Amino acid sequence: MSKKLFIETLGCAMNVRDSEHMIAELNAQEGYELTDDAREADLILINTCSVREKPVHKLFSELGGFNKLKKEGAKIGVCGCTASHLGKEIIKRAPYVNFVLGARNVSKIGEVIYRDKAVEIDIDFDESQFAFKDFRSSPYKAYINISIGCDKQCTFCIVPKTRGDEISIPADLIVAEARKAAESGAKEVFLLGQNVNNYGRRFSGQHEKVNFTELLRRVSAVEGIERIR
User: Fold this and answer.
1) Grouped pLDDT means (10 residues each) for the chain, 229 residues
2) Domain count of the chain?
3) Do residues 103 and 37 share a domain?
4) Which domain holds residue 8?
């Protein structure tokens, strides 16, 4: 029998894409299959948001509920921006949580599930060139990250402290992902970033310098893509 994964996603479209990445990695590496019933899950993940205060409060009430209904031996993991923000405090307040995985550390999901009380929240971790396995919630639309993090320091926003400094994802990886999505039926792509107009200002390695306008031109040239958002 395959292992079952239940995942609850709170917050923005970028969190939705992070959840899709975790689903894909856990399926490919560990054979997890999705379930919409947390009671039958072997692994319960909450992908959190910390932009507003209410989702943070909601997290701990949700955790308590999942702890009561989970089956024996099931693990609970907290991921996303609140994980980055609170870190070890989550396990301190909810000791039944098995691991905490920050928003900048999504690619580590396959390893933290085996490290009890693991806390991976490095906001300087660079996964801009990590080749995630493929999973999309909808066959007709695709979320594609074009950058991670944010360089702005707006007084009302916690994102730079949960997702780190801004790094653009190489254009060839983005176009390849758009092409792969189109080949499997996607008609619409959502290009995701905290500040998409900044695209191309910083890459983590030696990559072709492409700005947002040029990126739009390249994605729009992908056969089968009818709308870009």
Assistant:
1) 92 92 96 96 94 76 94 96 94 97 96 96 92 90 95 88 93 96 96 94 88 97 97
2) 2
3) yes
4) 3-120
